[in-house]
Amino acid sequence: MCIRDSIRPILLQRVAQEQSMNPHHLGTIADTDAFRIRQRQCLFLGLSDGARIDSFRRANRELDHEQIWQTHDLSAPRVKELVEKLTIQVRKLRNDSEETTIYPFRTIVLLDDFSGSGSSYYMAKADGTVGGKIAKFFNALMDDREALAALVSQGDFDIFILLYVATEQAITHLAEYSHRLWGARNVQCKVQAIQHLPPTIKVARAGDEKFRVLIEKYYDHSIFDPHIEKGGAADAKYGYADCGLPVVLHHNTPNNALALLWSYDDRAVRGLFPRVQRHKEIT
Predict the structure, then answer these.
(1) Per-residue pLDDT at 274 exceeds 90
(2) Which among 255, 262, 272 is positioned nearest to 115, based on CA atoms?
(3) CB 220: neighbour CB atoms within 10 A?
(4) Phi, psi (deg, nearest 5) at residue 223
């Protein structure tokens, strides 16, 4: 669903423009080798195991197995293999097995399940640089000395950050930093969420007094670790960065949620849906 509604329409429009076709004739565009090639030149990478790449792959059978990978942290041999298999398939679609051209990816889609603040992807550092998993990916992709740079041809690719669920705060944060990093290198970067969580969902510290008493009563400060501290709040009562989300995901509870929900099951106060610390990371 996320590919059909979010990525495919954009690819159709880009092929229409490149091939000088009527952009409203979507069926005709989709039936061209130009579109099949453009779609094959998309690489889908998971930003965490929450991206559920196994389910994503099964739900998008029109995509090739070799254009979907569970992690964005790719080794040099993996990069080489992905580009080689892409090149073979593009040559077949072009019906020219004698070609010597190497075909890189033209679109990279970074997938994840949830973001409450966006700071695990981009985070301002004390020295003025930007850290975070997408910032690290950016640095490697844009550096010709890094193996990851071989995935794309500089000046001829774009980036999509596609989240299944995200707050408006996270989307704004991602859009701002994406423009700062990718935009500075003339790389188009689009941020999109399938399901948006509005600001009104947040439980604030100045909220209902009876609920504040409950939050205070059932709080164990031992969950306030260095990762939570990076969010800037004095405690973890309202989650990382005081996001105050009343959110529970089916596979885990984000630490942006109220501590009442996610407090670990090995603490004095056990949350209603204890969080599993997968990589000691923040969201």
Answers:
(1) yes
(2) 255
(3) 15
(4) -80, -10
